[in-house]
Design goal:
single chain, about 210 residues, mainly alpha, 10 helices, globular
Amino acid sequence: MLFHALDLGATFVFAISGATQGVRHRLDLFGVLVVAWAAGVAGGIARDLLIGATPPAAIVEWRYLAAAMAAGFLAFFASNLIDRLKTPVLLFDAAGLSLFAVVGTQKALEWGMGPIMSAILGMITCIGGGVARDLLTRQLPVVLYGELYAVAALAGAGSVTLGFWLGLPPWPVIAFGAALCFFLRLMALYRGWKLPIAATNSESSKET
């Protein structure tokens, strides 16, 4: 029940981020709701299909649709308020990333996946919605070039699988994994932490 509640909470948070981006791209109400739903459940659907948990929980369980639609309506009709709350929204997004990382990894472990693949599936749970959101709004997915995002999710997911492999109690490990992911994401937002980018010939010529 607790894992289910965490999963629904993360779905709502990510759906808000998708709906907010849809509003900023001047989509109509239907478009905003579509982007909200895709951002909220795409990662979980991809994970469930890959581990064989079919049909995916986000399709079978009506609460996932309700959470995504509630987030979409909230972002559409309270867009000015959400714009003023930009920092809290980023914090909720970081929290949703952390929750999806540990919940997605734990579900993969429970379905018999190995530690390495479970960590990867936990990361996919996190980034799938963001990729769907960005593609629907015609943007290069931010996970490919922005601050630490997928790496933060992979670090949190990897902590959960490491604890599982070592036979440690699950809840302290899950709490640590979520905290690690949240910390790395905050450092990326406020300290600009990111992976290095390869220098191009044009950049080298500018330096000379």
